[in-house]
Specification:
eight-stranded antiparallel beta sheet; alpha+beta; Protein Transport Mog1p, Chain A
Length: 207
């Protein structure tokens, strides 16, 4: 009986040391698997001259690969912001809180992740990666009338162009280019100092 109890305890300790992957890890693994299977199926479709199916599968694989790219960027930020504790990243339907003009940055799937500092302040990061996003961003940045209409400020963050929007109660939302990553990053929070501290972490890390 003692041997059985000892064995059971060892199994429990082993299971604890090798925790099951969290929901985010499972989701990412599933998306990666889908990309591989869609690409393989697209190749098979090409070999059978089913070009329409091949094109559809490749579009699906491309969309999922883009999701993985957005997710990986939130992971980079988690590693580069030691002053903040990251939560799991999620794919959510969201719109920009910085650029709120009709027809621009309206709700679409984004990678979103929340970060919390030692004082409990929450900073939310969203990554936008659609092809049109860069041109829309630059259009607004260079249009004084649009900036005035939206109460926006042009700045430079992490060596890239950025657009800032302040709230009436100390909130701050910043959208900046991440040109090398092919995305736009939005960082927002109810406390301006917390948002700027998060950006300062990223700048210090060279992100």
């Amino acid at each position: 009986m003692k041997i059985f109890i000892a064995a059971a305890s060892s199994i429990a300790l082993f299971a604890s040391a090798h925790a099951q992957p969290d929901v985010a890890e499972i989701t990412i693994a599933s998306i990666e698997s889908s990309v591989r299977s869609d690409v393989d199926a697209a190749v098979a479709a090409l070999e059978s001259d089913d070009f329409d199916r091949a094109a559809l599968l490749l579009r699906t694989a491309g969309a999922n690969a883009n999701r993985l790219s957005l997710q990986s960027l939130t992971n980079k930020f988690a590693n580069a912001a030691p002053s903040f504790e990251p939560e799991n990243a999620n794919f959510v339907l969201a719109q920009s809180s910085t650029i709120a003009f009709e027809g621009l940055f309206e709700p679409r799937e984004t990678a979103e992740r929340r970060f919390r500092d030692d004082e409990g302040n929450v900073v939310t990061v969203r990554v936008f990666g659609e092809a049109r996003d860069f041109s829309d961003f630059m259009f607004i940045k260079n249009d004084g009338a649009m900036l005035n209409k939206g109460g926006l400020e042009v700045a430079e963050m992490m060596g890239e162009p950025a657009i800032k929007k302040r709230g009436e109660k100390g909130e701050l939302s910043v959208m900046m280019m991440a040109d090398k990553d092919g995305a736009l990053v939005e960082i927002e929070g109810d406390d301006e100092d917390a948002v700027m501290a998060f950006i300062s972490d990223l700048e210090s890390a060279g992100e």
